[in-house]
Amino acid sequence: MKAPEKEAVRWMRQSEDDFKFAQWVIGEKVFFDKGCFIAQQAGEKALKACLYSLGQRRVIGHSLYELCKELSVEESRFSALIGEAKQLDRFYIPARYPNGLPGGSPFQVFDEQDLKKAIGSLERVIEICRTFLSERGVTY
Predict the structure, then answer these.
(1) Does the pLDDT value for residue 2 go beyond 70?
(2) Which one of 28, 71, 100, 138 has the lowest number of neighbouring Cβ atoms within 10 Å?
(3) In a domain, 140, yes or no
(4) What string of DSSP letters covers 21-50?
(5) Could you count the other beta carbons within 10 Å of the beta carbon of residue 22?
(6) Burial level of 123, CB count in 10 A (0-12/13-18/19+)?
(7) Is residue 121 in some structural domain?
(8) How many other β-carbons are positioned within 10 Å of the β-carbon of residue 107?
(9) Closest CA to 53 of 18, 6, 16
(10) Is the Cβ–Cβ distance between 110 and 36 less than 8 Å?
């Protein structure tokens, strides 16, 4: 694996790019399902960046809830993100696959309100991760 700081930078840069895309989607008022999934992905990548900055060599899993729990062992501020993590985790499967929903397809079911909630949760995750990485001397 690359140096922990370099790996954290790669993951956080991708998270920031995904965040910009989710913001673009809400501005365009299209593809709400995809925007919700990308918001989940951006949060996941930001949290993984934090774990990599701690020297973890391999970070697996897609649950923001689980990543926050793992990070909160090292840093209590991640406990405050549990609610946002749970909100974003709801978009991992249902926002992508028709069989993740009881009826309809993701493009029919997810709407602007869903994406606004996702972006709100993501903003909090990104804010905490930016601060955490900055305090650790990780610049990107």
Answers:
(1) no
(2) 28
(3) no
(4) HHHHHHHHT--HHHHHHHHHHHHHHHHHHH
(5) 24
(6) middle
(7) yes
(8) 13
(9) 6
(10) yes
Number of domains in the chain: 1
88, two tokens: 């974003």
CATH number of the domain that 125 lies in? Answer: 1.20.120.330
CA 42 from centre of chain: 4
Q: What is the DSSP string of 79-132?
A: GGGHHHHHHHHTTTTTTT-GGGSSSS-HHHH--HHHHHHHHHHHHHHHHHHHHH
Residue at 33: amino acid letter: D
Q: How many residues does the chain have?
A: 140
Q: Six-digit token pair at 111?
A: 């709407």
Domain of 14?
A: 4-135
CA 134 to chain CA centroid, Å, is 18
**Which pLDDT belongs to residue 131?**
98
Q: Residue 89: inside a domain, yes or no? A: yes
Residues 6+ apart with CB under 8 A from 92: 37, 40, 62, 63
Cβ pair 16, 78 in contact under 8 A: no
Give the Cβ contact number of residue 44 at 10 Å: 24
124 within domain boundaries: yes
